Amino acid sequence: MKGSGAMLRNVGRWDRVVRLVAGIMLLGLYGALEPPLRYLTLLGLLLIGTALTGFCPLYGLFGHSTVRRPAP
After folding, report:
1. Integer angstrom CA distances of residue 70 from 15, 32, 34, 67
2. What pLDDT shows up at residue 1?
3. CA 31, 25, 29 angle in degrees (round to 5)?
4. 54 pLDDT band (50/70/90 cuts)?
5. Nearest alpha-carbon partner for 43 in 60, 59, 29
6. Quick one: DSSP state of residue 30?
7. What tens digit of pLDDT does each residue of 12-32 get?
8. Which of 19, 27, 62, 66 has the smallest C-beta neighbourhood within 10 Å, fewest atoms?
9. Whose CA is closest to 12, among 61, 64, 62, 63?
């Protein structure tokens, strides 16, 4: 690993798929809801971002990971 500030993936494959689908569905509700609920749908961007990068800051904060590591 290069550098000390590199982000390690802590979101596994199925977790990423679920986050991506949920994020897209949540963003899809943007036009159907009235403010202020409309703006809560923008949280879907966070789900999509974590799905695309494979890194969740909350998982990192608590030391959690859903990535399967090879058995030693």
Report:
1. 18, 44, 47, 10
2. 45
3. 15
4. very high
5. 29
6. G
7. 999 999 999 999 999 999 999
8. 62
9. 64
pTM exceeds 0.85: no
CA–CA dist 60, 56 (Å, integer): 6
Q: Please state the domain extents for the chain.
A: 13-59
Q: How far apart are CA 50 and CA 20, in angstroms?
A: 8
Q: Which two tokens stand for residue 65?
A: 């990971």
Torsion angle in degrees (nearest 10) through CA of 29, 49, 68, 4: -160
Q: What is the pLDDT of residue 28?
A: 96
**Length, in residues, of the chain:** 72
> Do 15 and 66 meet the contact criterion of CB atoms below 8 Å apart?
yes
